[in-house]
């Protein structure tokens, strides 16, 4: 799905989190929002997911204005920074949650839900852990379960907030490959937030460098590396 | 490499410590245990035993018979009714207040937190007087209510209001710190997965807070059944009509009917113990879920 961000701005009280920013995300792209903390990248991601309301501007999904569209209706698969798995539910129930939450008319039958959950567990290469609770999983496993849960609703896009933030270096590298693989096999437009430039450069088709609530530069990783457009980008990349 | 000469090798002094390095000496532990047990015995167990002994002083038949009297039965019924109305309402208000405080940012949040604590700091007698002032026959509102056949003061509604005022903080106080710690990410996740607000509350929030909620409800239930001061002011102490168990106990005691007074007191204490026992039993039965979430 094509995402068009048109002059989106956000203020919290007197704090400006985002100055008006515009960005076009082509359908099927894997995009990184890269920047230090406080650069407004997470705020922008949450606006796309409908978890924050923009103060001004609009977001278009495939040309349709989403202003005022409820979170539930966006069908944005969201992976939270600390995964936000439902701690009192098993892995199976976590992944099935979105399917069970559907209105009766479009809710799949029990057997179909089980089939889909098991297929997703295979996709994240964790078959057989459906009966465990989130507290019994490692950080990397939790992250993959969160991804499967987001995929279960057959989303129109994937939004990930610092998906590898809380993991050690080795697991990070494995999971980057995992995300790339899932993106390539599903073809979903995917936006992830990161403060790690290596992660952004290695994984993304398109990197959006942000600072202080503004977009500094948008481009392919190689372009940005070769021709940093602002002093901030130059400095951020060499840091 | 040369071998160090013997006098340079550091040998640890030989302590007589039999306990681990982070543990207190044995005598400290024994002393602490003894103090706790002594305080428990004097402050909690002895009074309970005394009440029971006094109640059963003339045999359990006499004690039971005193509880079977008309006025005694009315008092028990009234106390249970008041608790049955006040506690669920306070549970709902407590959840709503905790939700407002922990999930949103808004002006006046600090004021609400202070207001919730008000019943802890205001004397129950003052709380009762406030109800009388607001709803008594001499106030505009009270006069209107009485004229329309719905008296509040010296009637059950007043007792319920006073009890609710006294027990308001318990549920909210239990929930606010827990819900603050849990944050709202899981709730947001439920919404992005398509759940309605109501479904999110039932399937995500409620299971996360249920043990704290249960604990708050049990505490407020115990307090609702035992409240004396505020109820004494608003009830008018009409025997058989507006006398709750604690008020009945006082009246019986003042009339030197000690078996009746202590039988009622023993029953009231028992009701509180039953609620505590219920909580323990529930915790024990759902130990696996508690391990997955958080024990209170």
TrEMBL record, chain A:
Any GO BP: quaternary ammonium group transport
Enzyme class per UniProt: hydrolase
Residues in ABC transporter domain copies: 3-237
SMART domains per the UniProt record, alphabetical: AAA
Domain of life the protein comes from: Bacteria
Keyword Oxidoreductase annotated: no
Gene3D superfamilies, alphabetized: P-loop containing nucleotide triphosphate hydrolases
Key words of the record: ATP-binding, Hydrolase, Nucleotide-binding, Sulfate transport, Translocase, Transport
EC number: 3.6.3.25
Nucleotide-binding in keyword set: yes
GO MF entries: ABC-type sulfate transporter activity; ATP binding; ATP hydrolysis activity
GO cellular component: ATP-binding cassette (ABC) transporter complex
Protein name: Sulfate ABC transporter, ATP-binding protein
UniProtKB/TrEMBL annotation, chain B:
Protein name from the UniProt record: Sulfate ABC transporter, permease protein CysW
Membrane topology reported for the UniProt record: Multi-pass membrane protein
Transmembrane segments: 30-53, 74-101, 121-145, 152-172, 212-235, 256-278
The UniProt record lists the keyword Flavoprotein: no
Cellular location(s): Cell membrane
UniProt lineage: Bacteria, Pseudomonadati, Pseudomonadota, Alphaproteobacteria, Rhodobacterales
UniProt keyword Ribonucleoprotein present: no
Molecular-function annotations in GO: ABC-type sulfate transporter activity
């Amino acid at each position: 799905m094509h995402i068009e961000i048109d002059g989106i701005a956000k203020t919290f009280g007197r704090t400006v989190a985002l100055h008006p920013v515009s960005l076009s995300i082509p359908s099927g792209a894997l995009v990184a929002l890269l920047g230090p903390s406080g650069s407004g990248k997470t705020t922008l991601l949450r606006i796309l997911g409908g978890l924050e309301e923009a103060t001004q501007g609009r977001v278009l999904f495939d040309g349709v204005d989403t202003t005022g569209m409820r979170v539930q209706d966006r069908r944005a698969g969201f992976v939270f920074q600390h995964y936000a798995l439902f701690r009192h539910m098993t892995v199976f129930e976590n992944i099935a949650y979105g399917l069970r939450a559907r209105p009766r008319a479009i809710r799949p039958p029990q057997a179909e839900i089980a089939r889909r959950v098991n297929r997703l567990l295979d996709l994240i290469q964790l078959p057989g852990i459906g009966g465990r609770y989130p507290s019994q999983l490692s950080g990397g496993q939790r992250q993959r379960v969160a991804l499967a849960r987001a995929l279960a609703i057959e989303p129109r896009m994937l939004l990930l907030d610092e998906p590898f933030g809380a993991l050690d270096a080795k697991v990070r590298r494995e999971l980057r490959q995992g995300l790339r693989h899932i993106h390539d096999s599903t073809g979903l437009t995917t936006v992830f937030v990161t403060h790690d430039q290596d992660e952004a450069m290695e994984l993304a088709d398109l990197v959006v460098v942000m600072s202080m609530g503004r977009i500094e530069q948008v481009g392919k990783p190689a372009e940005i590396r070769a021709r940093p457009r602002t002093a901030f980008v130059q400095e951020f990349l060499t840091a | 490499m040369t071998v160090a000469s013997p006098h340079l090798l550091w040998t640890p002094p030989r302590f007589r410590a039999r306990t681990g390095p982070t543990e207190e000496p044995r005598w400290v532990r024994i002393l602490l245990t003894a103090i706790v047990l002594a305080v428990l015995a004097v402050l909690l167990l002895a009074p309970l035993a005394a009440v029971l002994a006094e109640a059963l002083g003339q045999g359990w038949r006499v004690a039971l018979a005193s509880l079977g009297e008309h006025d005694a039965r009315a008092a028990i019924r009234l106390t249970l009714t008041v608790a049955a109305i006040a506690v669920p309402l306070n549970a709902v208000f407590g959840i709503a207040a905790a939700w407002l405080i922990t999930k949103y940012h808004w002006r006046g949040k600090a004021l609400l937190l202070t207001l919730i604590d008000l019943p802890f700091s205001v004397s129950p007698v003052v709380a009762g007087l406030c109800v009388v002032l607001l709803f008594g026959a001499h106030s505009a509102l009270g006069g209107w209510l009485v004229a329309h056949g719905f008296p509040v003061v010296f009637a059950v509604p007043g007792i319920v209001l006073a009890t609710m005022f006294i027990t308001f903080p318990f549920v909210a106080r239990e929930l606010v710190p827990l819900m603050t710690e849990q944050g709202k990410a899981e709730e947001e996740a439920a919404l992005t997965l398509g759940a309605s607000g109501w479904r999110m509350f039932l399937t995500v929030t409620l299971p996360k807070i249920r043990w704290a909620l249960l604990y708050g409800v049990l505490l407020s239930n115990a307090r609702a059944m035992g409240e004396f001061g505020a109820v004494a002011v608003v009830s008018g102490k009409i025997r058989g009509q507006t006398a709750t168990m604690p008020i009945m106990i006082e009246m019986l005691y003042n009339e030197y009917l000690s078996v009746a007074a202590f039988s009622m007191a023993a029953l009231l204490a028992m009701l509180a113990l039953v609620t505590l026992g219920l909580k323990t039993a529930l915790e024990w039965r759902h130990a696996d879920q508690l391990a997955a979430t958080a024990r209170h």
